[in-house]
Structure prediction request, 357 residues.
Amino acid sequence: MVLAAGEGTRMRSTRPKPLHLLCGKAMLLYVLDALSDCDVKRAVVVVGHGAERVTKKLEEDGPGLLLDFVEQHVQRGTGDAVSVGLTAYPDDELDDDADVIVLPGDTPLLRPETIAQLVSAHRAADAACTLLTARVPDPTGYGRIVRSRDGRVHRVVEHGDATDDERAIDEICTSIYCFRRGVLAPALRRLSPENAQGEYYLTDVVEVFHDAGYPVISVVADDFRETQGVNDRVQLAAAEAELRRRTNEHWLRQGVTMLDPERTYIDATVQLGSDVTLFPGTMLQGRCVVGDGAEVGPDTRLVECTVGERSVVEHAVGRSATIGADAVVGPFAALEPGSAIPDGEVTGPFYTAARPT
Prediction:
């Protein structure tokens, strides 16, 4: 879980982002990116098991804002996690009207514009709590949004505690919120673990605010898929496919040619020049740089490599290698770490470039 607060300078993340989300700590990098269109002062990451690995990754690759880490030693629910996270904010650091954004740590498809829209609506309404909701085809397992007769948000009921009528509701709570800082901590103290899970649900603060007369509003996500969490390998594969689609669409609009975008894999850290052509089966990972007019593929995997302008690399694998301009590498070439292909070199088939001694 991530808590971001304050109205500091505008933060635009420039750190490299891995495309492959094979661990939770990598997913958190994408979640933090969702804050990039908001004015934030700092972010608090609430961690649990494996905290050391998470903090190390985020300290190395995290965005350009102050990060604090608070450990939730006992897993007592999302409400408790937010309470733990708030301990990182000194009382004299934020005024009562400051915003606190709460994001789950497993939603890598969140877009910055969605969170910016949430915060904008929250401030315009001077709300105590603003929820991001979504309408989904299958709401099973999610907390349902229960509204009053006037259409306002009344409460959120978790699936395990819902009646049959409530389970028929297709509007769900995404676990993404913007709170007014001054009223959040008192509301959290009124939570009770008297529920099916025996936990302190953050969703219960909605009813606390409603019953106390505080304004609670909601923003419905334009695309419910960006709010979905990643809890298993099936959802992980779906998230990676969507991120790959977004990355490929970006480069296609920049003038890169892909003969088959569905079979082209580009990390978000890769830099491509103008008029680059990528053939099916191309995989570019890490901080690869491909120069203007170069052709890569088919069936080529390059990791942390540089490809010079107008070079051709086909049926090749390479790691931490440098290919000069106007070179022709492959087919069936292997470039070991540290190897370099000079400008204009034609390697021929089945070429192996050994690392320098």
Remarks:
- Confidence is low (pLDDT under 50) at residues 7-22.
- The CA atoms of residues 156 and 204 lie 7 Å apart.
